[in-house]
Design goal:
The complex is a heterodimer of chains A (334) and B (353). By secondary structure, chain A is an alpha+beta fold. Chain A contains six helices and 15 strands. Classes of the chains: A alpha+beta (334), B alpha+beta (353).
């Protein structure tokens, strides 16, 4: 018998197949072939991107020239544009506004061959530090309400360039999915005076069967109501609303655990395409401690079809207990 | 300048990325390899390879589970929900769960091995839609179910599986899905404010403005919604206000089949046979629960419709994280392409209008 499991925050139900679950071998994973074209993210091709906004490079090297370790540039084909006023208007029954926002690309390494999972601990920390610096910087822009950090890895997960990179999109509106989480968390807190994410961390640590790995400050687990097979969430164990408030020490702990999770996932699922995203409190609410920031990681193994589009609930063929077990057993040499 | 547009029904914003504007030619993908020569369980003559039929349109004189049918409904061989048992609602610490009870049926839309419903004659589509209404009405009698979703996956990218034989599916669920609830709440909020149906208002506006309308038949309008999430997304909306798809009159059903054939044929022409998903949003089952009816004004505030989503873009981290979609083709452009693509009369058959 399969199970319907409810997301305690969003109230969304997912179908989790528990009788004939799919293991890692049941999914088709496409190979990440490396293309031959000139890559705008490689050394020597810096002029192919807009000028760098943030960079890690040794003293003596020139801006927008080779020698850097990490680069942040504006997206050449931005979904939203930074220039221009934010104008909201109506059109009969409809509402619209100008597409103002920021769209940046974090180029994680100059090396075309390496994935995020291959980065050294120091390089990995530099990426997470760049995430923090860029999102804090965009908070200065009063037009922007939310900054979403995310990564698409692999063609089927929507990556259009293979060179390892993450993205940041800052929006003039708090996105619906984030609003739903905020509302759900608020509802839970009103009722129980506790944070639902803190409760989740406590229950997962107690039960252990969905935990992938942990260190002193962070936990990675497959959520009870996972929408996708091998979905993993990474949360700070201590309540914290704002990703931007992480200390250098916290960044170190978070980087190590995320890297471990990515390495385990790559080993367990034969290098799958994946997406991850960071949910943190909206810009205007980051002082209020009513939210618990976290990272959601989902390998791209299943296809969205009519049922998911129509209902908003997902059919997950791999119970999170099985997924966590597989990921725990995957080799990792930290 | 890109535009942010808000879906008036559920309040979801969409980025219409005018800077990345894409035309049909940008989306045309290489043809998917067609399935092997293996035996198709859905073809006429292979009835023994499916579970026993739940119903079929077949001439008098032919026996159940034998050839001769035009449309056939069978339980899914890999059901996502099972029909037997009780819900057994329970808690696990802070989490809630219940058993996966429901129904999962396959509507085989043709006895012949044709993959795309766009290639079926209108009468065949009419039969398949008629069968869908009958299955919905029948499943409503089961008090464990709150909703039934009719949907269709065409092409591997859209999740159609390996067998290229036209079919749609119905899944009955023991909870009203979140996505449907959002629509119901949005429709009710608008109704409370204006005492009118939002979709009726929207139809008036779209028919006046015309530039997002693909085409109209006597009872239906096909349009590209203002806040389309996807390039070439099309909605089929009845002109007569009705919350419940299964209550359609016979002439309306025939007209829907005509429009469906038109829209699917045009989509196939414009985008060279793209993969797609389609789904029906209709009112949930309204079994009396407790003293207060859950959806008091639903008959007046909700308006059923079909959503058709060609699968041309990929849903990635941004969409998952934000619930925002980035649509590189403004719906006005999509509607124009679809409006101007006129399939030959011979292809679409005679209009029922």
């Amino acid at each position: 018998m399969s199970e319907l499991r409810r997301d305690p925050i969003l109230g969304r139900w997912n179908i989790v197949a528990t009788d004939e679950p799919d293991g890692p071998a049941d999914f088709e994973v496409e190979a990440h072939a490396l293309g031959k074209g000139k890559c705008p993210f490689c050394y020597g091709n810096e002029s192919m991107t807009p000028p760098e906004i943030y960079v890690v490079r040794p003293p003596g090297s020139t801006a927008n020239g080779p020698g850097w370790q990490l680069r942040v540039v504006a997206n050449k084909f931005p979904a939203l544009q930074i220039e221009g006023p934010l104008e909201r208007r109506g059109l009969g029954v409809f509402d619209l506004c100008t597409g103002v926002g920021a769209h940046e690309v974090i180029i994680e390494t100059p090396d075309h061959q390496r994935q995020m999972a291959d980065l050294s601990p120091e390089e990995f920390q530099a990426v997470i530090t760049a995430f923090k610096v860029r999102s804090l910087d965009l908070r200065g822009d009063r037009r922007l309400k939310y900054a979403l950090l995310f990564k698409n890895f692999g063609l089927s997960a929507g990556a259009s360039l293979e060179h390892s990179h993450s993205q940041l999109i800052a929006l003039p509106i708090v996105p619906k999915r984030v609003q739903e989480e905020l509302k759900g968390a608020e509802r839970y807190m009103e009722f129980r005076d506790r944070c639902p994410y803190c409760d989740m961390v406590a229950q997962e640590l107690r039960e252990g069967e969905r935990v992938v790995c942990e260190n002193r400050a962070f936990i990675a687990f497959c959520p009870f109501m996972s929408s996708f097979p091998f979905e993993v969430w990474v949360l700070p164990k201590a309540h914290s609303a704002d990703f931007g408030k992480m200390t250098p020490e916290g960044i170190g702990d978070f980087s190590r655990l995320l890297k471990e999770t990515l390495v385990r996932m790559r080993a367990a699922l034969s290098d799958p395409a994946y997406n991850f995203l960071i949910h943190t409190a909206p810009i205007e609410a980051h002082e209020r401690e009513e939210y618990h920031w976290h990272l959601e990681l989902m390998p791209k193994l299943t296809k969205m079809a009519g049922f998911e589009w129509g209902t908003g609930f997902y059919i997950n063929p791999t119970p999170p207990e099985l997924a966590a077990n597989v990921l725990r057993d995957a080799p990792f040499h930290g | 300048m890109p535009e942010l547009r808000k879906d008036p029904l559920i309040g979801r914003w969409v980025i219409i990325a005018t800077e990345r504007a894409k035309r049909p030619v940008d989306f045309i993908a290489p043809a998917e390899p067609s399935g092997g020569q293996e035996l198709c369980h859905f073809c006429e003559g292979n009835e023994a390879h499916t579970p026993l039929e739940i119903m079929a349109l077949r001439p008098p004189g032919t026996a159940a589970n034998q050839p001769g049918w035009t449309v056939r409904v069978v339980p899914s061989i890999k059901p996502v929900l099972r029909i037997e048992g009780n819900l057994n609602r329970r808690a696990n610490g802070m989490y809630d769960l219940m058993d996966g009870i429901g129904a999962h049926e396959i509507i085989i839309e043709s006895p012949q091995h044709i993959a795309n419903a766009a290639d079926l004659p209108t009468e065949q589509l009419h039969g398949a839609l008629d069968v869908a209404t009958r299955r919905i009405i029948d499943l409503e009698r089961d008090p464990r179910f709150r909703y039934v979703l009719w949907f269709k996956n065409y092409g591997a990218i859209a999740g159609a599986g390996r067998v290229p034989h036209a079919r749609s599916q119905v899944i009955a669920t023991p909870v009203t899905p979140l996505r449907v609830k959002e629509e119901l709440l949005g429709a009710r909020r608008y109704f409370e404010d204006k005492e009118r149906c939002l979709v009726c208002d929207l139809l008036v506006q779209e028919r006046e403005m015309q530039h997002r309308v693909v085409l109209e038949s006597s009872h239906m309008v096909a349009l590209c919604p203002f806040a389309s999430r996807f390039p070439f997304e099309v909605w089929l909306v009845p002109k007569t206000h009705r919350c419940d798809f299964a209550k359609m009159q016979p002439e309306e059903l025939a007209d829907l089949a005509y429009l469906w054939k038109q829209v699917l044929s045009r989509l196939k022409m414009v985008l060279s046979d793209p993969p797609y998903n389609a789904l029906l949003h209709t009112a949930p089952f309204r079994h009396p629960r407790g003293k207060i009816s859950h959806w008091k004004t639903i008959e007046e505030d909700y308006h059923w419709h079909v959503e058709l989503i060609p699968r041309l873009t990929r849903v990635a981290g941004f969409e998952r994280g934000s619930g925002f979609y980035i649509n590189p083709t403004p719906p006005e452009e999509s509607a124009k392409y679809l409006r101007e693509a006129v399939p030959e009369a011979a292809v679409v058959g005679v209009s029922h209008v």
